[in-house]
Write a structure and sequence with these properties.
Elements (H helix, E strand, L loop, with lengths): L1 E6 L15 H19 L1 E2 L10 E6 L3 E12 L2 E12 H5 L1 H28 L5 E11 L3 E11 L6 E8 L21 E2 L7
Helix pairs in contact: 1-3
Length: about 200
Amino acid sequence: MRYTVLLLVPALMLAGAAAPAADIPLLAGCTNKVFNEIHRTHKWSGKAPAACPVTIVVEKRTDGVLVTAWETRNVEGGWVRTAFSGAMGYGELAGKKELAKAGRDIMARAKRLERCLDSINTVNDPLECRDRATKSYSADEESGVENDRIVWLDDDGRHTVVGYAYGNATSTPSPPADLLNGQQLPPGTIIDLHTNR
């Protein structure tokens, strides 16, 4: 049986779990590499780019593509999962200059999100960001606690979201469901970059 509680204030970190905000630029860079691949090949290969030891999911949306990258690490007493999700429109994916500009925007927003997550984890201040946290309790064959947080910039800019979760309830935590709202694209899916331009 699993119980979920919405927290309005952050939960305490697991003992020994360090804030993984340094992973956010790596994750954002990996999403940009996937966008570059889609620009070049007009499809999603289903493989994480070179130098990206992360899990990647690509979703096709009405006006563009959403890429989510995440990694899960074992820490003392449990695990920590950090995720980054970013979006680009079809027009940005089709044009070389537009792609480069959107990639710079994703990296700049990732750095801002990194500062917010660092601040939340150290002094409970989200700075310019907004955040939402949930805490789940498991009481079946395996008991434990899982804390999930999503952080986003409080503006009307590009979709960029950070997910941060930690717990001891399962040895293999589920994917960052709060960041994945659509249908995952299977490898080899052709993406028409001229749709809705």
